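Internal tracking record. Fields below are filled automatically when a chain is submitted to the structure queue. Please do not edit lines marked as system-generated. If the sequence contains nonstandard residues, flag them in the REMARKS field before resubmitting.
Queue: standard
Priority: normal
Entity type: single polypeptide chain
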Amino acid sequence: MPYKSMVVNLFNIKTFDNTSLLKGVNRLKSNDYVSYITKTVVTHLQTPKEERKQRKNEKKLHKEPFAYKWFGILPYSMKASIEMMKRPKK
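SYSTEM-GENERATED OUTPUT FOLLOWS
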């Protein structure tokens, strides 16, 4: 009995095969995947260079800060609590 299944069976949780998860998922065939990639590459190459640069700059402007992206709301809550402590009490 593998370690993972021992832990799962300890808590009386039913186990299942990973293949059963993929029964409802539509997989792309190799031809479909190649056609999708070629379409995206062609559309990328057909767009003007200025438009691509403009899209890239817009993405950079709307990017969320690094701390919020990687650590969630924790930095925001710390910042808010520090600001509340600095406020003068009335």
